[in-house]
């Protein structure tokens, strides 16, 4: 028996496909009254996992403009105050993590019983994929739930 979709996870990076995926996930979550969690893995000197959780009630009240501002702040100014001011009543978390975005995304999805992952993907050549890997490909292989890839 299939589970209903109650929790949607959206990995965000600096790419256009990721922003497009976030918009699609936003529409899906809003229409089926699911929560949405935006996850951004920063990999610099320290790996940092940044999460923004928005419950279904707050998602209904979130305007398109505020959602767009939220996406911009996640990758532009990911401070707690900046994110909290964009979405009332959302939960913003920062935590250290591994240097593997695909592992972090899959582990979080399993831990929080996520029902759907919606993520963007850029097209990589076979050589690029062999040398540097592809986060979307790894998430597709290892995710504990359905994954929708947006390009």
Total number of domains: 1
- For this structure, the CATH topology is Rossmann fold
* Largest sheet: number of strands, sense, barrel closure: 6 strands, mixed
Assign the structural class, choosing from mainly alpha, mainly beta, alpha/beta, alpha+beta, or little secondary structure. alpha/beta
**How is the largest sheet built, in terms of strand order?**
4-3-2-1-5-6
How large a portion of the residues is in β-strands, by DSSP E?
15-25%
Task: Give the name of the CATH architecture.
Answer: 3-Layer(aba) Sandwich
| Separation, N- and C-terminal Cα atoms | 29 Å
Uncertain parts: none
Radius of gyration: 15 Å
Q: What is the CATH top level name?
A: Alpha Beta
Instruction: Sum up the overall morphology in one term.
Output: globular
- The CATH superfamily bears the name HUPs
Work out the helicity level: 40-55%
The secondary-structure element order is EHEEHHHEHEHHE
**What is the helix tally?**
7
**Structure summary, number of beta strands:** 6
Mean pLDDT: 80
Characterize the structure shown.
With about 150 residues, this protein is of the alpha/beta class. It has a single domain, classed as 3-Layer(aba) Sandwich (Rossmann fold), CATH 3.40.50.620. It contains seven helices and six strands, in the order βαββαααβαβααβ. Strands 4-3-2-1-5-6 form a six-stranded mixed sheet, sandwiched between helices. A hairpin with a 3-residue loop joins β2 and β3. α5 packs parallel to α7. The longest helix is centred in the first third of the chain and has 17 residues. It is globular and about 40 Å long. The chain starts with 6 loop residues before the first strand and ends with a strand. The model has no long low-confidence stretch (mean pLDDT about 80).
């Amino acid at each position: 028996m299939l589970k209903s979709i109650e929790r949607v996870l959206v990995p965000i990076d600096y790419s256009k496909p990721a922003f497009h995926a976030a918009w699609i996930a936003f529409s899906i979550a809003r229409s089926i009254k699911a929560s949405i969690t935006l996850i951004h893995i920063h990999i610099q000197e320290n790996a940092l996992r940044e999460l923004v959780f928005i419950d279904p009630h707050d998602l209904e009240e979130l305007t398109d403009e505020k959602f767009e501002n939220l996406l911009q702040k996640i990758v532009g100014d990911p401070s707690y105050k900046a994110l909290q001011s964009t979405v009332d009543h959302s939960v913003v978390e920062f935590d250290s993590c591994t240097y593997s975005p695909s592992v972090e995304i899959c582990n979080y999805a399993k831990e929080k019983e996520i029902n759907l992952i919606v993520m963007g993907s850029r097209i990589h050549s076979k050589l690029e994929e062999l040398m540097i890997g592809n986060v979307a490909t790894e998430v597709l292989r290892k995710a504990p739930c359905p994954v929708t890839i947006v390009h």
